[in-house]
Amino acid sequence: MAPSAIPNGTANGAPSNGTSTSTSSLRADDNIQRFAAPSRPMSPQPQHTLFHPKTRCFVYGLQARAVQGMLDFDFICKRKTPSVAGIIYTFGGQFVQKMYWGTSETLLPVYQNSEKAMAKHPDVDCVVNFASSRSVYQSTMELMEYPQIKSIAIIAEGVPERRAREIAHVARKKGVTIIGPATVGGIKPGAFKIGNTGGMMDNIVASKLYRKGSVGYVSKSGGMSNELNNIIANTTDGVYEGIAIGGDRYPGTTFIDHMLRYQQDPDCKILVLLGEVGGVEEYRVIEAVKKGVITKPVVAWAIGTVAGLLKTEVQFGHAGSFANSQLETANMKNSSMKEAGFYVPDTFEDLPAVLKKVYDAEVNKGSIRPAAEPAVPKIPMDYNWAQELGLIRKPAAFISTISDDRGQELLYAGIPITDVFKEEIGIGGVMSLLWFRRRLPSYAGKFLEMVLMLTADHGPAVSGAMNTIITTRAGKDLISSLVAGLLTIGSRFGGALDGAAEEFTRAYDKGLSPRDFVDTMRKENKLIPGIGHRVKSRNNPDMRVTLVTEYVQNNFPSHKLLDYALAVETVTTSKKDNLILNVDGCIAVCFVDLLRNSGAFSAEEAEQYLANGVLNGLFVLGRSIGLIAHHLDQKRLRTSLYRHPWDDITYMLPELAGKGAPGNEGRVEVDVK
Amino acid sequence: MSAKSIYEADGKAILNYHLTRAPVIKPTPLPAQATHNPPAKLAAIQFEEGDNVEGVLDRAEATFPFLLVPGSKFVAKPDQLIKRRGKSGLLKLNATWQDAREWIAARANKVQKVEHVEGALRHFLVEPFVPHPQETEYYININSVREGDWILFYHEGGVEVGDVDAKAEKLLIPVDLSQYPSNEEIAKGLLSKVPKGVHNVLIDFISRLYAVYVDSQFTYLEINPLVVIPNKDVTGAEVHFLDLAAKIDQTAEFECGSKWAIARSPAALGMPAIAEKTGKVSIDVGPPMEFPAPFGREMSKEEAYIAEMDAKTGASLKLTILNGKGRVWTLVAGGGASVVYADAIAAAGFASELANYGEYSGAPTETQTFHYARTVLDLMFRSPNTADGKVLFIGGGIANFTNVASTFKGVIRALREVAPLLIEHKVQIWVRRAGPNYQEGLKNIKAVGKELNLNMHVFGPEMHVSGIVPLALIPGKMNSSIKEFEG
């Protein structure tokens, strides 16, 4: 992988690099980059090369952020094609995933099984496996069945040790390099980045990982690999390759595997090893150095030196960081490495200085010739991140002022859901929060609940219930049946509430006496909405009306409109016994009393809510209970499709003089001459 | 999450239940036992701080009826991962239940010093005493390494077994179980010092023991002494695990959780069916596995609080109090960085003053960070206020994705709440952090330090991850040439 393999883009970093786009022929807003498959098989890489600037991989698991990070890295490294060939996601029904390639976009295929992915992309030899600790064993074993796969990075933490050992065993037999489990992965500057290694793009740019240096490192900890990137960038010409082998007790590959690769790779000049308390893998590197297999300078440190100084056993962050014997302690490792001729600092804080010294010596010897620094690439900032940093703003398309699900707790009009329950505000209280954005006094909440209870159902014969029943019997689902019923609600059915509120309010506000109101309506030949009942009368009162009236009279601070309506009733019932204030009228006027006189609403607000149809809302909400009940009832009874009997329909078709021929009876013929 | 020690009682229960059930890897020389083992007689008696000891013992009698069988003799011992209990006088042998009960009552909830560690005795195990001839005692140990599992076997068991690493016979069972040794190889590898007559019995037992080891995902198992008394025609044997220490792989919970649970269910332990007190539904047949803390490292209220918070989120929050009276406290982000900080503090000569080990990582929310920081700060103010004052490291590596500014908001909120105490306790605060948006985070914390008049030094990625530790602790290391974060 000579550096010339990295194409030099134009100075401004524009994506002029050999992609198969022809933007001119496409729509102006189509900013999608498409990548052609390689025209010929790639020439084989040397044995010691795990990743190179043409490495192509699959990401196993729908990890959009990690994939985007990899593509961004590829872009600033001026790769011609993205390192990710596709995503394998076994739960997916999705076929492509949209990603950014610089500022333009590209589509990555998403495969539901490995077999298809492998067949489609024979150039892929690496998998970044994001499967969970539960499923990673099975998926890794499956991936190793494909001979094209040469390396697999296992990100999951908490893989059972027995399974990790089995994976390592099979991998060794098949010659697959496993990185992990429990790792962030690794990075080859200028060539390939595994998953989330290196963190955000500004980290990567700060540590100059977009171009290769001369220092190869192997670290146990993924978190500390970031720190190593930083140290190496600050003290040398940069990272050549870095692998985090993972913090578990049995990583698939260990220090020695990668150190040997670095030794064989002529471009890697200095090796850095960051070990840890626990395990004995560092000793295999010591052995290799002692035997003269590794001859390049090794700067090393094992963290966890504190363990021996603590009184009791402490399990540090990593599963494997626990010393079972003297050999496994960090102190013993550090002294053994020093003895073997590694460059081991006195403390980890001194490591940068030691590394610098080793690097300067190599430069003086002429084995490292620092290359000229390329221009620092620019990477567009992600919208979300820019917003989090408060760098940008944009007008929102939607506004919500009643509920918020983003925080730790769901909020209803600013009140946390736990308080909603603690204070037992009930359905009425929740309605007042969500409909009116305020806490109404508890008598108001009770009143709302009362309305819901009273309007919940009115038997199967009314039009809404009928529609629901017929729809249910046609085999439709709950939502369709409910909606079929709800759609009948309007000025004739259920809509009396709105009309009543409007007429009574207008009359009252005009200062008409109840008798004047009734007279005016009669003159205009209008029925008074909310007055009259089919069977109930003054002597046979509607108990629902009585309940509401009594409640409101006893609990509302003011009920002027109800009093007015009751006076109107006195006028109307004197004409006909059944012209009583019915339940719709009663609820409507009481609700107006609530809006106007509870002190919780201004006059404008009250008008606004009425105009916006809040009364219909009450009816719809209440009656939904009943409509659902009718649907469930019909389902329970397993009623069949309803067909209305012919004899219940009067067929009255226009009849022509002289009945037509059979089949033509009743057709109206129009003479167009 | 890793290999964790378990109670002796739990280890024995798992062996007793699964020994006849776990599938053997290759056929053994003996036919499988016709019936499963009877319920294990293991009375695990647990005391909590402030418990009425006699009351707990009375309840134990009801839970474990075998304790009251007349004429029985028992062994009683604390079951808290204590090694060499016999030598510390923590073993009551060949006792009637009344004796054992008194012996436990005299020790329950009392602090005991074992070697150099002090801790309260809270968890006891009572089981039948097994008289047996000396020559039926063996030593067996299985432990896992990268290449496979080592079985160590020695023909003599007991406390005086000595250096088993040197003298026991060893056999490596490879990871690939298709390479499992034949019965002859097992005999050759492990039983060369055992009379031929009991070979079959022992091979059968070892194979079954190893099957349980694999099936229940042990990572370590030591039985010493193991007592194997063959029956007359040597077609089977009575096996007793007199003393057992084991670790299992906690990460295998999703594969083995149900096996661990059922072996420890009331039915498997011969408990009379007592109505569940709590009425709680557990996910398996039997209780979830418990992983006791090492002896003397009982979780404090604060540690338990952080552990509980940790369990409830995707973020990682860890806290271990090493020395509550220490002067050096840490509030470090990241698993690797937290170890590096502890190392650096020890290297500077302050290991004995290091008060806590812990870390927060994995993008905790501002609130979680606040509660974590508040907990550590509260503990810090409880340690004695000395003339030298205290040192608090607010450290961390270069974060990958955590928005440093937002996690620091939680830390800053905690600092604000306790600012007067920070001054009163003469706390030096040293800050080092980097990663996404660190500039904003460092600027904010620095501003708060100035505003509240705190003794604070702030550094960014130019400073080595734990570079602030020597600067803070070693006199003369900090000088004017070392630049702090400017903001």
Automatic annotation (TrEMBL), chain A:
Q: Where is the composition biased (Polar residues)?
A: 7-26
- Domain of life, per the record? Eukaryota
**Record GO terms (molecular function):** ATP binding; ATP citrate synthase activity; lyase activity; metal ion binding
Cite the CoA-binding domain residue spans from the record: 50-159
Cross-referenced SUPFAM superfamilies: Citrate synthase, NAD(P)-binding Rossmann-fold domains
Keyword entries, A-Z: Acyltransferase, ATP-binding, Cytoplasm, Lipid biosynthesis, Lipid metabolism, Lyase, Magnesium, Metal-binding, Nucleotide-binding, Phosphoprotein, Transferase
Name the EC number(s): 2.3.3.8
Residue segments, region Disordered: 1-27
Family, according to the entry, reads as follows: Belongs to the succinate/malate CoA ligase alpha subunit family.
Q: What is this protein called?
A: ATP citrate synthase
UniProtKB/TrEMBL annotation, chain B:
Indicate the principal place this protein occupies in or around the cell.
Answer: cytoplasm
Residues in ATP-citrate synthase citrate-binding domain copies: 297-473
Localization of this protein: Cytoplasm
Q: Which GO terms describe its molecular function?
A: ATP binding; ATP citrate synthase activity; lyase activity
Question: Which BP terms in the Gene Ontology apply to this protein?
Answer: lipid metabolic process
Specify the domain of life of the species encoding this protein.
Answer: Eukaryota
Enzyme class of the recorded protein, top EC level: transferase
Keywords of the record: Acyltransferase, ATP-binding, Cytoplasm, Lipid biosynthesis, Lipid metabolism, Lyase, Nucleotide-binding, Phosphoprotein, Transferase
EC identifiers of the protein: 2.3.3.8
Q: Which residues form the ATP-citrate synthase ATP-grasp domain?
A: 2-260
Q: Where in this chain does the entry annotate a coiled-coil region?
A: none
How is this protein annotated for GO cellular component?
cytoplasm
As for family, the record states: In the N-terminal section; belongs to the succinate/malate CoA ligase beta subunit family. In the C-terminal section; belongs to the succinate/malate CoA ligase alpha subunit family.
Protein name, UniProt field: ATP citrate synthase
